[in-house]
Amino acid sequence: MGRVSKRKAVEKQFVVNSSVRRYRAGIYARLSSDQDIKKNESVEVQIEIARKFVEEFNQKNTGEVIDVVECYTDLGKTGSNFEREGFQRLLQEIRLGEINCVIVKDLSRFGRNYLEAGNYIEKIFPFLGVRFIAVADGFDTGKEGNENKQMASEIKNLVNDMYAKDFSKKAKIHLKQRREEGSYVGGPPPYGYISSWNDKRRVLIPDDNTAVIVKFIYERFVETESYAVVADLLNRRKINPPAIYKKTKEVYHSSDEKEYKGWDKSAVERILKSDTYSGTLVQGKTSITAKNERNRIHKSEEEWVVTKDAHESLISMELYRKAKEIQEKIAQKTASHKNHTKGYPIEENIFDSVLYCGVCGRKMTRTSYVKEYADGGKARLDGYFCLNGGQTKVTVCPESNRISKAELVDILRPLIRMEFAVFLDKPKKYVEFGNERISESVKRAEAKLHETEVKIRRFREEESSVYMDYRAGKILQKDYVAYKMQQEDKLIELRKVEEGQKKDIKTLEKLSGRYLSAIRALLKLKSGKELTKDMVEAFISKIYVYPGKRIEVLFTFTADCMEGVK
Known about the structure:
Helix content is 47%, strand content 16%.
């Protein structure tokens, strides 16, 4: 939407000659959605016609002057309603008293809804003291004797209204045909693509600047299995979200710009749920009413127009399928937690961070339900299963690999007591030995951290130099993006190392307390208290579950930290 402001210049002119009546005009231009039929009415042409009218008007008239304050435009907007951004902005300026004259090329550019257009011209604008001029129609509410043209304007608006309704039907048929031909008929292209005309088809082609970002999103999602984590990775890189990129054409947030508006979980999810990036074009999911573009009707899946291999894919089919599988898993997991029975809430998952399938290595998924007994009693029962068993038909992982929470706890209790029994009578010596080892480990970890910080600093210096070259026009944006993505991958790895090293130092510093916590947890377990998440994580690293309810437990401290304690 274009905007041309001359407000300051106009304000200065107002005080020059108070005897002349001056109008503060807003030129309104609309490019309708049917411009593939009529290509001679661009907004530039409409504005030029209006400006020429103003110029001639000011030359011919001595008692009146029209000053063009701003131009308001709507691109690709229907004329059957007035819910348009540019027009609504014009209306707001009128209400504020900034505009008191509206100029359009002709009545059809103003609107094709007879009732609404007539309401603005004959009621709203006169009430607000606004002069309305339709240049090509010779219609001007500021002229005396313009009543003779009132009937003509009403007839023309009626014709426009009828045309709009007739065109709406024809447009729907035309759009359906274009969809079936594999032509992209949507609005702005999806993030990662630009549109181009190939013969009579509008096709999507990869955007060199953002295609790599889309691939990055899919790859990281398959790795992390989290929309939120991917959004965080994008935000760490200061990559502009689709809406900001569309506006600025800058992939990365510039330090010169205002506050960074990053990605959220929903933005990532929309990209991952789209079939477009696999080369498939899915169109016609919704339709709109003639009265209101916002009133969208969702169609059944059978009515969708699906075109395979409509354009170049940005990701491999293998990556696409993996992402879909993970999305289904997340949806199932979310659904299982939505409808818990009142009075029987889902309890904390005490094995959330430690429980894995012993066959395929995948983290086991919790299932929870409320069981009703014959006597009317109810109880919530928790269990765990491997999602690779049965759901995705991974043959190496049997569907029977599942275990209930009660069964798992019954197995773990004696196993933990047995593993730690030898250390329960010497907790003091255990803690002293641990602290000594921690002190040595901290020194080694701090030396490694320093080396990593030096590498990161050198990376940043090089990046700053390349960025200055990009801003100076020495490097194309697509080349800069490619460089950034490559460098950022390396930097992310270094950052991971750095974060890991810092985390290790903090962990080591807290390890004495953790040793003591483990002893306390064991004493609680020995006294018969229920197993809690804190207790599990105090002395268990991983639990592997195998078919037949067989488990393998990897304890955190016994293997290496307990060694040497006498």
